[in-house]
Amino acid sequence: MTEQIITAQTVSLDVDAGADPAAVITTLADALAAAGRTTDPADLARAALEREAKSATGLPGGIAIPHARTASVTTASLAMARLSRKVDFGAPDGPADLVFLIAAPEGGAAAHMKLLSSLARSLVRPDFVAALREAESDERVIELVTEAVDPEAKKKEAAPPAAPAAPAAETRPRILAITACPTGIAHTYMAADALKYAAERAGVEFAVETQGSSATTPFDPEVIAAADAVIFATDIGVKGKGRFHGKPVIASGVKRAINEPDKMIAEAVAAGRDPSAPRVTDDGGTESTSTGSSRVGLAGRTRQALMTGVSYMIPFVAAGGLLIALGFLLAGYEIANSTLDSGGSLNDAAFIALNNSLWDLPSGGLLQYLGAVSFAIGSGVMGLAVPVLAGYISFAIADRPGIAPGFVAGLVSLAVGASFIGALIGGLIAGAVCLWISRLPVPQWARGLMPVVVIPLFGSMIVGGLLYMVLGKPLAWLTEQMNSGLESMSGGSAVVLGIVLGLMMCFDLGGPVNKTAYLFATAGIADAATAGPAQFQIMAAVMCAGMVPPLALALATVLRPGLFTEPERENGKAAWLLGASFISEGAIPFAAADPFRVIPSMMAGGALSGALIMAFGVELRAPHGGIFVFFAMNSWVLFLVALVAGTVVSAVAVIAAKQFGRTREVAAAELEAVAA
Fold it and tell me: Could you tell me which residues belong to the region Disordered (predicted)?
């Protein structure tokens, strides 16, 4: 940096600068004028107070960051006062004793704007704020701020570090992490970032492998070998868990990594030094459950297995359902009717697809043929959903040897009429049986046969036999009773179900609760033999409620842009399309920054939309697509009414909630927007 952004003339420690923000800002503007940073301190103070009037700049923790951009500022600068008498800058938790006035020139100085953004991020760190409060001199404050806005400065001034630095690096703990959530869109990467920043704070060498929807780069074997411990922050099964055989492990869901990253890093460091800590074993890559906080527990492991199955099932349901809906659009709903031919019972679509071609079109012409083919393909893909669900539940428990028995469980569930309930239970049984078989002591010569012959063979026999001979009929009865109960729902009971589904869809925005509601809806329409109006209404309620959060937040950023940071306003623009496409995760950046205001607001609108859908009797035959599958609804107009109502309620609710103060993160991000 060619010129320091802060100097001794612009630092005031333990001073009484007045009783209100105007007095403090004026004092700091005068200090900048004395340092030659502004030609008109009154103009600077006026600009900062105008900005203050638009939105208070107080942050939780006793900090305020008034700022302005004006032509009277000659170079981007910072004035700081540590007040002996606190002044109220509008923070939700009370007045501030640390005040920073950030002055930026009207044009140019992009490099300095970047440095100011660095300061904004530093103000969120408790250690940085504590150091400022404890600083005994102006020089110490300058050192802290300079290091925050220009980290390279300290490196340049440091004594020759080469010789002593190497040993220090060698002694730092080395921690690896795997993060994964069912959809691999948001929570996967939020957890990765939270752990990364926690590791930086703790001085730990850290690397993370995000097993999300984007391309995954697996750890190099040498990196794994050098690691002291590994963190599994996942809601689904870890891919290639066996790579970490022998490594101490801390395991949890992704939410704990987001909420308690520092604690997890500390636990991993401690586990790396503890010979008795739980370790990853070689029996299908499962971790020891001997002791310690790494243990996920039976309930946690079961939830992870179920979410793994759902994660792998969703693409089949989405692709199959959209193809079926396209078939309806092209050939009409009668394409699903049954037809008898010499080969047995088929629906019209399968009959037409098998007995016609582009050179031998059916009586309905080209559109009927294309619709029949689309419906037939979609039905085939949808028919795979149940086996895939069971197969990957089993995989999450017993790794690859559990896949075949899991698929067998799903196929038998379909055969006996147990459908998704049978797949859920059968997949868990298959995984448990395969894991038990893998742990049986066998001669060394037989170990190579275990994963490819012995486990799949006996696992399939046991789970298939149990479903056919013991569990099949009770589970089929339970499935039939559930479908009958749904079909009989009407009036108030249906509305209550819509409210519950709406609340679930908006509770964690793509997390396990959201996915549970989505699975409940897709399970109903995936089984063509049992699907009826009630199942189609549930699907409509789930989709409508899931579209509300992104659309509501996009609307809120338009109605009251001043309540949102510049990055949030940009996210709001993208949220229009995400919400219209039924991608609830578009609301996650807003919820992550301010969960206690955003999530309840979204749940209010989601509950209203779900209730209205059930009250209106809107039916939807496609499991995904948002506004792009209006053709698969019996009344897209009423669907739109419910969607608009929920969106408006959530937008108004979040705007109202935002009036009661802002989080430190929001204000810090807003400060970064000064550079825009």
Answer: 271-297
Q: Domain 8-157 belongs to what topology?
A: Mannitol-specific EII; Chain A (3.40.930)
Report the helix count and the strand count for the chain, using DSSP H and E: 27, 12
Give the pLDDT of residue 186: 57
Please state whether beta strands 229-234 and 249-252 pair in parallel, antiparallel, or not at all (unpaired). Answer: parallel
pLDDT of 545 over the 90 cut: yes
Per-residue tokens: 514: 């959201």
Helix crossing, 298-331 with 512-526: angle to 10°?
40
User: Quick one: CATH architecture of 174-280?
Assistant: 3-Layer(aba) Sandwich (3.40)
- The answer on pLDDT for 460 being more than 80 is yes
pLDDT (mean) for 654-668: 66
Q: Would you state the structure tokens that stand for residue 539, as one six-digit string?
A: 């699907």
Is 59's pLDDT higher than 80?
Answer: no
For the beta sheet containing 205-210, the strands, ordered from the edge strand earlier in sequence to the opposite edge, are 205-210, 174-180, 229-234, 249-252
Contacts of 624 (CB under 8 A, 6+ apart): 317, 318, 321, 322, 543, 582
Find out whether 415 and 476 touch, Cβ atoms under 8 Å: no
pLDDT at residue number 290: 38
Global pTM value: 0.56
Angle at CA 135, nearest 5°, toward 130 and 139? 135
Dihedral sign from CA coordinates of 651, 656, 657, 659 = positive
Integer angstrom CA distances of residue 485 from 23, 132, 318, 531, 532? 68, 63, 25, 13, 12
Number of Cβ atoms within 10 Å of the Cβ of 172: 15
d(CA 589, CA 186): 9
- Name the DSSP letter for residue 368: H
One-letter amino acid of 336: A
Residue 482: band (very low, low, confident or very high) from pLDDT cuts 50, 70, 90: confident
Contacts of 140 (CB under 8 A, 6+ apart): none
Find residue 58's DSSP bridge partners: 64
Q: Which helix (H) or strand (E) holds 68?
A: strand 67-70
Please name the helix (run of DSSP H) or strand (run of DSSP E) that holds residue 600, with its range, or none.
helix 595-616
pLDDT at 163: 44
- Structure token digits, residue 517: 């509601």
Place of tokens 């219209």: 580
Sequence letter at residue 551 = L
Distance of CA 598 to the CA centre of its chain: 15
Q: Can you tell me the distance from the alpha carbon of 300 to that of 296, in angstroms, rounded to the nearest whole number?
A: 5
Give the whole-number percent of the chain exceeding pLDDT 70: 82
Instruction: Map residue 203 onto helix, strand or coil.
Output: coil
Residue 408 makes CB contacts below 8 A (sequence gap 6+) with: 430, 459, 460, 463, 464
Pairing assessment for the beta strands 338-341 and 229-234 based on DSSP bridges: unpaired
pLDDT digits 0-9 by tens, 504-521: 888 877 666 787 788 788
Q: What is the DSSP letter of 96?
A: E
When pLDDT is averaged across residues 531-555 and rounded to a whole number, the result is 88
- Tell me phi and psi for residue 85, to 5 degrees: -120, 115
**With the CA atoms of 283, 285, 287 and 288 taken in that order, what torsion angle do they form, in degrees rounded to the nearest 10?**
20
Catalytic residue among 112, 181, 434, 506: 181
Say how far apart CA 490 and CA 103 lie, in whole Å.
62
**Catalytic annotation, pick one of 67, 112, 187, 624:** 67
CB atoms within 10 A of CB 537: 26
Q: Hey, is 177 helix, strand or coil? A: strand
Mean pLDDT of 550-558: 93
| Residue 28: strand, helix, or coil | helix
- Domain segments of the chain: what residues? 8-157, 174-280, 299-486, 491-667
340 DSSP 8-state letter: E
